[in-house]
Every structure is written in C-alpha cells, then in structure tokens.
Design brief:
Blueprint: E1 7-11, H1 16-27, E2 31-36, H2 39-49, E3 53-57, H3 63-76, E4 79-84, E5 95-96, E6 99-100, H4 103-128, E7 140-145, H5 158-178, E8 183-190, H6 196-199, H7 203-210, H8 222-234, E9 242-245
Parallel strand pairs: 1-2, 1-4, 2-3, 4-7, 7-8, 8-9
Antiparallel strand pairs: 5-6
Amino acid sequence: MQFRDNVTIVTGGASGLGGATSKLIVDRGGKVVIADVNATLGEAYAKELGANARFVKCDVTSEADGQAAVDAALSMGRLTGLVNCAGVGGANKTVGKDGPCPLAAFTRVVNINLVGTFNMIRLAAAAMCRNEPNDEGERGVVVNTASVAAFDGQIGQAAYSASKGGIVGMTLPIARDLAREGVRVVTIAPGLFLTPLLQGLPQAAQDSLGKQVPFPPRLGRPSEFAQMVDQIFSNTMLNGETIRLDGAIRMAPK
C-alpha cells in the first residue's frame, strides 16, 4: 500500500510522532487528515503542510468525532490508512502516599489510549473494507502506537502499561478479523523518543535519557517513527505484529 494519491488519518497528527507521520504522508504524495484535540496546533500544522492536509478536531474516545474524521477523509479521496498516535501518559502508583490510585486516573488513560485506538480502528476499517483491492488484495493498513512500557512498565505506569499492553494484545486478533477484507494491522512500540513531552526537559536531562539506549545512545527522532510507518505500509507481509522501535533498550523499574 502506498500513500500517493490515497488518504490516511493520523490521530494525534499535529505534533510529535503523529506530526512527523503526517508530514511524511504529504511528502510521499498522499493526503492526510490530522485528527487531534488541539485545534490551534492542528489547524496551523495543516496549513503548513498545504492543500493535501486537513485538520479535524477529534477526541478519539468519541464515536461522533471519530466518524467525522473518517467522513472528512472520504471527502478527500480513497481512505486506505489509519495511524493511531493519539494518547496520554500519567504516573500513579497503585498505592501512593495519599492512598490507592484514583480509579478515574487509571480509567482515563485506558479509555484514551486503548478504547480510543479501537474506536478509530473500527470506524476507519469499516470504510476501508469498501475499497476496491489493489494488486496484492489490500484495501487498507492500520498502524497503532504502543510503547516499550507494554513490556517493561516502570513504577507508577500501571495504567499506561495496561493501555499499551492492550494495544499489543488486540493487534493480532484485529489483524485476523480484517484479513479477509485485505486490511493489515501492525503496531509499533517505540522506546524513548524526542516527543513534545521530552522536548520540555533540559538538554542535560534529554542527554541522560538518551544514554540509557544501548545503540544508538540517543533519543529516537520522530522522523524515524514515521519511517517505520512508511515501511509498514509498503511491505505487504507485515501484519498482526508489534515491532519494538527502541534501540534495544529495556526499561529499569524507575
């Protein structure tokens, strides 16, 4: 599956990993729907990327918002791709100094990261299944974003790890669900990447985090995540798998 002349939805597509992916899609001659909750950032980024980019304000947990993103994509052409980058973090110990972790905090992270990812998959895939297949029998590609925290969750990451582990866990069954329709599903589990969250840290802190990565001993670049998305789209044999993109890091407890 190629980006050129097709439309891809990128959730969280206004910055960070999603922002780099949105840019790559346009650079490859494709069209992108930037589905993001940050309207100011999203509108500005769509304008920067040009006529082949459109912003849609989207809370991924909302069926109406998700469908609006799909409808916007269909109005631009043939929807063949979804890249799920929207997500939130959060750090709460199961039992902390003030007592048990607030259930609302746990639920919020799981709802956005896991339920929101599934919401967007089901809506976008329904549209992709109506496509005419290409020469390989493909109708679409879904790429999800998990995290190495799905495997190496640190102290305080119960909610985040659960949400990302859920994405890993549903990758294969969804790929099997959609196999007859020619829609592939692959998940990327990035390690330490230079996202807006880490960009806010002092340079010394960024360098210290980067040195934890065996090789290359630095933070990952969002463009490298986007490159992996590109490779997944172009390699038809990649399906139902989670790919760690982490420089061989294995996270310590804290």
